[in-house]
What we know:
Elements lengths: L13 E4 L1 H18 L1 E6 L6 H9 L3 E4 L2 H9 L7 E3 L6 H10 L3 E4 L2 H14 L3 E6 L28 H10 L3 E7 L9 H21 L6 E3 L19 H11 L7 E4 L3 H4 L3 E12 L4 E5 L8 H5 L5 E3 H5 L7 E6 L8 E8 L7 E4 L20 E4 L5
Parallel strand pairs: 1-16, 2-3, 2-9, 3-4, 4-5, 5-6, 6-7, 7-8, 8-9, 11-13
Antiparallel strand pairs: 1-10, 10-11, 10-15, 12-15, 13-14
The protein binds ligand LLP.
Ligand LLP binds next to helix 9.
Amino acid sequence: MRDIRLPQGVQTPVYYYDMDLLATTAAKVRSLSEQYGIHIHYATKANEDARIVSALAAEGFGADCVSAGELELAAACGVKPSAVVLSGVGKSDEDILCALRMGIGAINVESVQELYVVNALAAREGVTAKVCIRVNPNIDAHTFKYVTSGLNVNKFGVSPEEFDEFEHMLSKCSNVKFIGVQMHLGSQIRDIRPVFEAACRKAVEAADWFAAKGYAICMINLGGGLGVCYEDPDSELIPDFEQWMLTISRNIPRREGMTIHIEPGRALVAQCGTLLSRVLFVKDTPAKTFLVLDAGMNNLARPAFYGAFHKIENLSAMQRPMLENDRYYDVVGPSRQSADTWGKGRRMPLSVRGDLIAIRSAGAYGQAMATRYNLRPDAQTIYSDNIK
Ligand code: LLP
């Protein structure tokens, strides 16, 4: 971990963003996207920080949004409306109207009823909505159950068995232009090749199905999902975008007038973010030693929500001249809930009250999922390029 020194007066917990790493990651992804001819839509839900969204927009990426709030954020951060897509199984009328008024690139529709509503709202506005069908391909993404979304028992998308009904509705929707197929299998996918080969097969099948009915397929969008290395972030600061894009590029045949798209969230931003916290207490009990931190599940919900692993480092101990023997700690947050645990039995250097602790890979679904639980104040934000 890079040496991080907190500027004077900055309180913990605080989110620290490494803007150099973000820029390096984005530049690499842009160059791969040009090489493979794949359009990028950053999934803003992963991190809605305006500086981060603006940095990715400046790289030329579009956005994948899930609400009117995210659509407005993307616009405010400089994303071109034509490069924005709207996803989500529960779009409100306000979300759809906002998308129609902005004239975004595509609304990814997840049910027959939603298609009907999008058409009705577009008719009311006097516009034509550009629509992709979100297909539920019934593929196991080999990831953890909370972030699997491409199985037919999940709430997302339209199954191939429902295509007839969807197409029947489509044929009656005069304010909808059907432009293509989208799918998203789940998140934190590490088994890139087999999972995305299967996804590409299903996407092409769906595209062919609609093409055979006479619809021109302008885009295939494979969603997000590329996973990151939480166990040892420094070994893979930039996730394997190359393997991902190569797999997609090899498995989607290029057709005239059709573009290929992806919606990465986590893989672009996770490793840039670190949640910095201090040890409030070292609590020795007959059973265990607890490090009680000032950061908790209110700041970063993933461990409590999903049992997710985040690497924990003691930055102060790294500065001490004499490293003492490591100890085993249960590292916990301040909330009165056992789920507010950062990690059990973590081997760390001897730690004392006031030590600065880094919770790594916190840039995705960290700040974006923070709550005011226990009425603790929000963690502040600092950016590496603002620190002298
Ligand atoms: N596209 C769609 C339609 C999505 O639903 C998502 C994420 C993405 C793209 C971006 O996926 P990514 O590249 O970030 O995997 N809160 C969970 C993750 C939920 C992901 C939801 N959908 C977590 O903390 O692990």
